Amino acid sequence: MLQYLTIPVTPFQQNCSLIWDDQSLQAAVVDPGGDLEVLLDAVAKLGLKLEQIWITHAHVDHAAGTAELAERLGLPIIGPHPGDQFWIDRLAASAQSYGFPPATAFTPTRWLQDCDTVTLGSHTLQVRHCPGHTPGHVVFHSPEIKRAFVGDVLFAGSIGRTDFPMGNHEDLINAIVQRLWPMGDDTVFIPGHGPESTFGRERKSNPYVGGT
């Protein structure tokens, strides 16, 4: 069975998630935006074997720690979609602008496309390309445990911002309706910030996409 632990990191309280196989303890980290010592302490306490870095999108609060973590532990970087090359290239400037520790750009070991899969031990998660917040944003979905790690596409009661460079509101709404809702109303999603919710709850009550 897959397990996960969400750990808010950086001054932006970005939800970084550790995902692991409870038998083999093979693990991936989703969006290591910073506070790497906090993350690595959690890995050690849980006895996990951290093997991969998965990136939903390359905004600084989600990706600033990626290059350092990959280099320190020799980990592959999986994702995002190539549409986020622009944001990867801007990581150093973004970190300086927002007062983050120095960050460097990285080259993903593997770019992701819509309908790709990622594997963790004996488990497979589905990848959906969900542009709008950024052009290369992806989501990781585990039908097995009915969980989706959605980054900044959707929040409890809100949606991702689209006023950043290369954001697109129409693309974001289409991604939510066409690619998230079919995962099922009972699927719990882990957003990039704030509390978890379900797709069913957001379909009913979210003021931006409710009723869609």
From TrEMBL:
Molecular functions (GO terms): hydrolase activity; metal ion binding
Keywords associated with the record: Hydrolase, Metal-binding, Zinc
Domain Metallo-beta-lactamase: 13-193
Domain of life from the UniProt record: Bacteria
This protein's name: MBL fold metallo-hydrolase
InterPro entries listed in its UniProt record: MBL_Glyoxalase_II (IPR051453), Metallo-B-lactamas (IPR001279), RibonucZ/Hydroxyglut_hydro (IPR036866)
Requisite cofactors: Zn(2+)
SMART domains named among the record's database cross-references: Lactamase_B (SM00849)
Region (Disordered) residue spans: 193-212
Organism from which the protein derives: Limnohabitans radicicola
